[in-house]
Amino acid sequence: MTTEKSIPKATAKRLSLYYRIFKRFNTDNVEKASSKQIADAMGIDSATVRRDFSYFGELGRRGFGYDVKKLMNFFADILNDHSTTNVLLVGCGNIGRALLHYRFHDRNKMQIAMAFDTDDNEIVGHQTSDGIPIYGISSLKEHAQEAGIETAILTVPSTKAQEVADILVEAGIHGILSFSPVHLNVPKDVIVQYVDLTSELQTLLYFMSQSNQ
């Protein structure tokens, strides 16, 4: 069930949501699910579900629904959720600390294996309550390469984001989830996903104002 088609970004962003829905269906002992059931669970329309699934070939038969366990395993394969993925975090401020205490591994097979901050930060050399070690930024390359980590979460001030991104690239990081509201200049083989909480909140407020008109 693979395809050579180019998958739109909007579809790619929904893959983890589909996976979550099929895991929920499986937990609820649902064996077959229609596109309408999937759409209702995600808050989208059935046509979008069918269009998304069409990029992956024949995932189900019209009128018979989708095999829940089969699709759950399919999306697990796509998202590489059969083995644990270790990531590192840079920036142990408010957002960083919140993420360090978020139990990613309870929901998916990913976990923050180590964290970094400025060498002179008093938390360096200690561990979180979950046992995650916190190192100085000067040792990032050494620790990341030793652990074979290729993914990082960036939660540093915008003025330091590019500098830290350069360090991550030099350390062999190929994927960055950035909470810093600035564009990062990285090589083409490094993927960056941006999370801008202020922008998301402003968008929410805009839609709220439109619905009240």
Automatic annotation (TrEMBL):
Q: What Gene3D superfamilies does the database record attribute to this sequence?
A: NAD(P)-binding Rossmann-like Domain, Winged helix-like DNA-binding domain superfamily/Winged helix DNA-binding domain
Q: What Pfam families is this protein classified in?
A: CoA_binding, Put_DNA-bind_N
Keyword check for Cytoplasm, yes or no: yes
**DNA-binding region(s) from the entry:** 17-56
Q: Does the keyword GTP-binding apply?
A: no
Per UniProt, NAD(+) binds at G91, C92, G93, N94, I95, G96
Give the UniProt keywords, A-Z: Cytoplasm, DNA-binding, NAD, Repressor, Transcription, Transcription regulation
* Positions of the CoA-binding domain: 80-183
Locations listed in the record: Cytoplasm
Q: Which InterPro entries match?
A: CoA-bd, NAD(P)-bd_dom_sf, Rex_bacilli-type, Rex_DNA-bd_C_dom, Rex_streptococcus, Tscrpt_rep_Rex, WH-like_DNA-bd_sf, WH_DNA-bd_sf
Example GO BP:
negative regulation of DNA-templated transcription
Q: Cellular component GO terms, alphabetically?
A: cytoplasm
Q: Name one GO molecular function term.
A: DNA binding
**What is the purpose of this protein?**
Modulates transcription in response to changes in cellular NADH/NAD(+) redox state. Binds to the promoter of the aldehyde-alcohol dehydrogenase adhE gene. Functions as a redox-dependent repressor of adhE expression.
How it assembles, according to the record, is: Homodimer.
Which family would the database say this protein is a member of?
Answer: Belongs to the transcriptional regulatory Rex family.
| Name this protein carries in UniProt | Redox-sensing transcriptional repressor Rex
| Originating species | Streptococcus equinus ATCC 9812
